[in-house]
Write a structure and sequence with these properties.
Shape of chain A: globular
Keywords (chain B): Amino-acid transport, ATP-binding, Nucleotide-binding, Transport
Distance between the termini of chain A: 43 Å
CATH class of one domain in chain B: Alpha Beta
Organism (chain B): Mesobacillus persicus
Protein name (chain B): Amino acid/amide ABC transporter ATP-binding protein 2, HAAT family
Radius of gyration of chain A: 19 Å
Largest sheet of chain A: 2 strands, antiparallel
GO molecular function, one term (chain B): ATP binding
CATH topology of one domain in chain B: Rossmann fold
Largest interface: A-B, 18 and 22 residues
CATH architecture of one domain in chain B: 3-Layer(aba) Sandwich
Shape of chain B: globular
CATH topology of chain A: ABC transporter involved in vitamin B12 uptake, BtuC
Strand content of chain A: under 5%
Largest sheet of chain B: 6 strands, mixed
Number of strands of chain B: 10
Oligomer: heterodimer
Structural class of chain A: mainly alpha
Family (chain B): Belongs to the ABC transporter superfamily.
Number of domains of chain A: 1
Chain lengths: 286, 235
């Protein structure tokens, strides 16, 4: 029972980190039809900038805010100068965003050096609670709560505000949104910036969770995030959290019970979903 | 009467295909101008070119005397042009209410009054107000699409084949609503159903192979069986 609970908690925390990365990716794909392979780079930049700001200021929350601002700025620059010229051309998008991913990773080494950095949780989030025989690690609960909070906040905006309505409509029919007098390009930039900020938040939260951060972490997590986007349904925000939790849990349980299959588990999950629901769990047909 | 919308020798390419090869027409304020022609003649592309969705590569599109052919679609719509596309463009997963809200430029008393007027015109939309747009019937989707274009005080409505695929009784209802909207708005209508086109329309333009080839008062076309047979394939 204790093992089960700990694996579940671990899987949920990992799932939330993947969700923070995948949520932006799915909205960017759904609304803008952009395959952004550089999203993982924004995740890594969030981790490095946030960890550095935390180490410099001594405040974990200032570190988190710094990572979010870094994500917003990098998102704006990426959308305006890298993505905008290649709208509508998937091949060019893949090439240029893969290139950007490499550039972002190398720039991390230029700024912070080639070695991995250690990251620790603030003192109030260190340690654990004991409930019976179950040990609940505080930082994992913190990640789960932050992930849920972000999900609820974005879901509220999507469901209850005009801008959210425009984003949802834009995912379904961009052309019609423009024909109703709405400047979809401004919405594109906003979504890209928010997606980048969420990725950066995921990155800074990952630091104390794994203990170390390194320049290639973006690519590792981006692969999981792409799996989540496919499983959840491209463009589906609720689909991204459900799929991220599934991927997090399957990774956690498989690593414990069938370690040889741990790496393949997520791919298998994606294959199964694609066979029975090619549009993903929450995706629209066609 | 002054021309509210004027197309002058407009040419449009879609990819490598030269779809519009010289479209010229004028739409007078307060009138219903009908674009007629066989399938593939270029009627839908003409409306899409006016909206900037397939921008013109040559020629001019003027609205109230201002060139709009180089503007992005959203700015053209903001000038006061509402668009009802051939496929209705309903946001399938949004409710009827949300579909209307996306279109509403403001939420003031005037817009609310307009909304009430529209819901009286299309009572089905009131009935399915909280239902997703994708669950509506073809006729109801058409009504929603027209209502969405009409919710703001647009000076001009571009309506693409509103009768397509609808049962005759629904066509009649859509026709009645367009007749009522005609009182307040200029309309450009693309329509294959000649009965509907000739009932609503004040003037017509026939498009053939991407060019405007005939035009005049609707009565002229009603009286000219040869022209109808030659360009529309109907007696």
């Amino acid at each position: 029972m204790e093992v089960f609970f700990n694996l579940a908690l671990n899987g949920l925390a990992t799932g939330m980190l993947i969700f923070l990365l995948a949520a932006g990716l799915t909205l960017i794909f759904g609304l803008m039809d952009v395959l952004n392979f550089a999203h993982g780079g924004l995740f890594a930049w969030g981790a490095y900038s946030g960890t550095w700001i935390y180490a410099t200021t001594g405040s974990f929350f200032i570190g988190i805010i710094g990572a979010i601002i870094t994500g917003l700025i990098l998102g704006m620059i990426t959308e305006r100068f890298i993505i905008k010229p290649v709208y509508g051309n998937h091949v060019q998008q893949i090439l240029i965003t893969l290139g950007l991913m490499l550039v972002l990773s190398e720039l991390l080494k230029v700024v912070w050096g080639p070695n991995q950095l250690s990251a620790v949780a603030p003192s109030f989030l260190q340690g654990s609670w004991e409930v019976g025989n179950i040990i609940i690690i505080k930082y994992r609960v913190f990640i789960i709560l932050v992930g849920l909070l972000v999900f609820l906040a974005v879901q509220y905006v999507l469901k209850n505000t005009k801008i959210g309505l425009v984003v949802r409509a834009g995912v379904m029919n961009k052309e019609m949104v423009q024909a109703l007098g709405i400047n979809i390009k401004k919405v594109f930039m906003l979504v890209f910036m928010i997606g980048a900020a969420m990725a950066a938040l995921g990155g800074v939260l990952l630091g104390p969770y794994s203990g170390v951060i390194h320049a290639e972490m973006g690519m590792e997590f981006a692969i999981l995030a792409f799996i989540v986007v496919v499983i959840g349904g491209m463009g589906s925000f609720p689909g991204s959290i459900l799929a991220a939790i599934l991927v997090g849990l399957s990774g956690s349980f498989m690593a414990y019970y069938v370690p040889d299959l741990a790496l393949a588990a997520n791919m298998l999950l994606m294959v199964v979903v694609l066979i029975f629901r090619p549009q993903g769990l929450f995706g629209m047909k066609g | 009467m002054s021309a509210q919308l004027k197309l002058n020798n407009v040419e449009t390419y879609i990819g490598q295909f030269h779809i519009l090869q010289g479209i010229s027409f004028e739409v007078r304020k307060g009138e219903v101008t009908v674009l007629l022609g066989r399938n593939g003649a270029g009627k839908t592309t003409t409306l899409r070119t006016i909206m900037g969705l397939n921008p013109a590569s040559k020629g001019q599109v003027q609205f109230n005397g201002e060139d709009i052919h180089s503007l992005p679609t959203y700015q053209i719509a903001q000038k006061g042009i509402g668009y009802v596309p051939e496929d209705q463009g309903i946001f399938a997963q949004l409710t009827v209410e949300e579909n209307m809200k996306v279109a509403m430029k403001s939420d003031n008393d005037q817009t609310q009054a307009r909304l009430h007027y529209i819901l009286d015109l299309f009572p089905d939309l009131k009935t399915f107000w909280k239902k997703p747009g994708g669950l509506l019937s073809g006729g109801q989707k058409q009504m929603l699409s027209i209502a969405r274009a009409y919710i703001n005080e647009n000076e001009l409505l571009l309506i693409d084949e509103p009768s397509k695929g609808l049962a005759p009784i629904v066509v009649e209802k859509v026709m009645e609503s367009i007749m009522e909207m005609k009182e307040n708005t200029t309309i450009v209508l693309v329509e294959q159903n000649f009965m509907m086109a000739s009932t609503i329309g004040d003037r017509f333009y026939i498009i053939d192979d991407g060019k405007t080839v005939q035009s005049g008062e609707m009565q002229v076309l009603k009286d000219d069986q040869d022209m109808r047979r030659k360009y529309l394939g109907i007696a």
